[in-house]
Amino acid sequence: MFASVGLKVSTPAPAVSTSPIIRKKAKKRGLKLKIKIGNPHLRRLVSGAIAGAVSRTCVAPLETIRTHLMVGSNGDSMTEVFQTIMKTEGWTGLFRGNFVNVIRVAPSKAIELFAFDTAKKFLTPKADESSKTPFPPSLVAGALAGVSSTLCTYPLELIKTRLTIEKDVYDNFLHCLVKIVREEGPSELYRGLTPSLIGVVPYAATNYYAYDTLRKLYRKTFKQEEISNIATLLIGSAAGAISSTATFPLEVARKQMQAGAVGGRQVYKNVFHALYCIMEKEGIGGLYKGLGPSCIKLMPAAGISFMCYEACKKILVEAEE
């Protein structure tokens, strides 16, 4: 799968040609790292996994606060939730469930980005071909990517939510998994899957379509093919804000369903029942409770994820590419 290992540094003297897995080129601006992975599909998977792990760890405190606000525990504002967590658990409380989150997000993001790139490449017509779909390729590819990753990693998302909210009920990841399966049944691991799938299709489709469109607009506006890391960060953040705002009510319903009956909370029959009950109790504002911190969390998360992914793709290639 990988090529042989070697090291190549540019010097005036002639060098013997090799097929390295890691290359470092000495340039005037510094040392540029290149890691060669021969399989293009593996490059996408590795890049996606790294991007997911880095982005979610960076925004783990915001994810914890957002989850508490969605299910109505530990306070009604970002400041109140933050202060409560700091008093009761300290800094470690802000990263509660992050290890499980990284375990979930790394393969999820790898599958998602791999599926998106693969689907987009397949759906994008060549110069002499007609369109394969009436919708933009990036829109359809984004939806397919979201569905693929959700189906593969949903139980980990549910366990992460339980560990974050019910910290006194579960000791760790394995204990949470066993307790849910024994007391509530294996199907409980997929509670809230329907609203997740309903929510992930418009979210992922909007996110990737916005990202792809903004990248094209950037190239057209500045008349340059290369997009810097900072520009990628801003473009990804904007795409995350657009998609999050459009699909936030479904995200609230999903979190409420995932929390289950633990702690005396109401159990919802389906996503429509959850949406109806939330609106009846809290009004339309209840469907957007936590939107502010959600955007604060999702914008940098999306931006960092896309930036890391694009950066890794530049590193995990052959030097000739």
UniProtKB/TrEMBL annotation:
BP GO terms, sorted:
organic anion transport; organophosphate ester transport; transmembrane transport
Q: Which family does it belong to?
A: Belongs to the mitochondrial carrier (TC 2.A.29) family.
The protein's topology relative to the membrane is: Multi-pass membrane protein
Q: What is this protein called?
A: Protein brittle-1, chloroplastic/amyloplastic
Q: Which GO terms describe its cellular component?
A: chloroplast inner membrane; mitochondrial inner membrane
**Which source organism?**
Aegilops tauschii subsp. strangulata (Goatgrass)
Gene3D superfamilies hit by this protein: Mitochondrial carrier domain
Q: Which Pfam families does UniProt cross-reference here? A: Mito_carr (PF00153)
Q: Where are the Solcar repeats?
A: 39-122, 133-217, 227-315
Localization: Membrane
Principal localization reads membrane
Which residues fall in a coiled-coil region? none
| Cross-referenced InterPro entries | MCP, MCP_dom_sf, MCP_transmembrane
